[in-house]
Amino acid sequence: YIYKNEKEIGEALHYLFENKIVERNELFITSKLWNDSHHPSEVENAIRKTLNNLQLDYLDLYLIHWPLAFKTENPKSVDDLISLETIPLESTWESMIELKKKGLTKHIGVSNFSIPKLNLLMKLSVAPEVNQIELHPYFQQKKMVEFCQNNKIIVTAYSPLGSRHLINTDKSITENSVIQTIAEKHRCTTAQVLLSWGMARNTVVIPKSVTSSRIEENFLSQTIQLDEEDLKTIEQIDKNQRNAKGLFAVMPNGYYTYENIWDE
Q1: Which alpha helices (DSSP H) does the chain contain, by range?
Q2: Which helix (H) or strand (E) holds 3?
Q3: In Å, what is the CA distance from 97 to each residue of 63, 64, 110, 129, 134?
Q4: pLDDT in tens, 66-112
Q5: Whose CA is closest to 238, among 140, 134, 133, 135?
Q6: Helix (H) or strand (E) segment spanning residue 82
Q7: What CA–CA distance (Å, rounded) separates 87 from 128?
């Protein structure tokens, strides 16, 4: 919802279905609940707005976008924030469970949730099925990945090529010498190495591109099989470099801090 692209995607989906280019059951479509709709009375309204935009009857997956609650779409001051004591994550999650019961979405999950916050929701009747988080070789989150997989929570890796747009850095991961060497070994691109690495960890990778050749290149990463030596080598370049920090919610004298968003 917050990416402001649902209506355009809805038009594209309508075209595809009308012209029988693809069937609905051949697509897996995900959207997210934005931070200004965490109140239990707003959750169903939010997904119905998304479904209307996308011209769909149901989603395959609906995620709580952040463990943050806002009064407005884009908070400008502390007054626009709502504490998680006022709207607990558990109450928002209970409403997500209701969406699944009503058939508005087949699966429910979260995004940008820490292990303690996942533990809160796992105490309820339905646990999160997915945690979509930032994952790439510079931010490998080994403890998180192991926790989710041990608890049957699918890990989806966003920014699997490194979130370069979020930070000021001279080089992207695709220019890392270790990744370049492995790419030469497998006669593939560095981006394909990064995506293959993510899949080798049994995580879902969702690279973003608007270029058809890059989309095809990304898709072909499924044919690249990294070996144990490759995986051990890539493990050594972890920088614990989180790029999507959620700092848009951090304000002087506000409820949210980097530490309590991530429980670090």
Answers
A1: 6-18, 40-54, 89-101, 115-122, 142-150, 177-186, 190-200, 212-219, 228-235, 258-262
A2: none
A3: 11, 12, 12, 11, 24
A4: 999 999 999 999 999 999 999 999 999 999 999 999 999 999 999 99
A5: 140
A6: strand 81-82
A7: 18
Catalytic positions, written as ranges = 3
Q: Is 163 left (phi over 0), alpha (psi -120 to 50) or beta?
A: left
Which two three-digit tokens encode residue 178? 């270790």
Nearest C-alpha neighbor of 36 from the set 6, 80, 93: 80
For 124-175, the DSSP string reads: SSS--SEEEEE-BTTB--HHHHHHHHHTT-EEEEESTT--GGGS--S--GGG
Pairing of strands 204-205, 30-33: unpaired
For the stretch 126-182, pLDDT in tens is 999 999 999 999 999 999 999 999 999 999 999 999 866 555 555 789 999 999 999
